[in-house]
């Protein structure tokens, strides 16, 4: 790891047990703070990598791994703590696990990871916002946003599937 974006991504991975600990302990404010830092680093590491041409093979592996670990872990805690409706959580969780496993499969086929599309990035940004609103007890808007995220998540999963299919079978 010879570049700052990779270090930032590693920090994001290391933050996962920190905010999970605070969630489970019931310290939602601390959990929300560390989750917000994690979400911020998700956008920050990519920006730095693109802006200063610091993209790396390791970064292409670490960043999606950190994304999926972050989303999957937070969804599992939100399900466990019953903060968001289970059906919503399971739909989003299924999409994240599907994309995570698809990425692993394409990697084992010796193919590069599929770059996230705009709709996929938009979906994750909305999901982070919805989670943040729920954590801040702004339930009404948080719930509405979760219901907006679901169809966008499904569309992005279909988009990802089509790209993966084309990549594997071309």
From TrEMBL:
Gene3D superfamilies: 1.20.120.1760. It holds the Pfam family CDP-OH_P_transf. Keywords: Lipid biosynthesis, Lipid metabolism, Membrane, Phospholipid biosynthesis, Phospholipid metabolism, Transferase, Transmembrane, Transmembrane helix. GO terms for molecular function: CDP-diacylglycerol-glycerol-3-phosphate 3-phosphatidyltransferase activity. One of its GO terms (biological process) is phosphatidylglycerol biosynthetic process. It comes from the Bacteria. One of its GO terms (cellular component) is membrane. The chain crosses the membrane at residues 20-44, 65-84, 90-111, 144-162. The keyword Membrane applies. Its main location: membrane. It is found in: Membrane. The keyword Acyltransferase does not apply. It is a multi-pass membrane protein. Belongs to the CDP-alcohol phosphatidyltransferase class-I family. This protein catalyzes the committed step to the synthesis of the acidic phospholipids. This is Phosphatidylglycerophosphate synthase. It comes from Halanaerobium saccharolyticum subsp. saccharolyticum DSM 6643.
